[in-house]
Amino acid sequence: MRLPTPLQSGRLIRRYRRFLADVELDSGETVTAHTPNTGSMMQCAVPGHRVLLSPSTNPQRKLAWTLELMEVNGHWVDTHTHRANRVVEEGLRQGWLEGLQGYAVRPEYPFGASRIDFLLEKEEEKVLLEVKNVTLCCQGDVACFPDAVTVRGQKHLRELAVARAQGYRAVIFFLVQRGEALAFTPADAIDPTYGALLREVVSQGVEIYACRTEVTPETVQVAKRLPVCLGPFSTERNTS
Question: What CATH number does the domain located at 81-225 have?
Answer without folding.
Answer: 3.40.1350.60
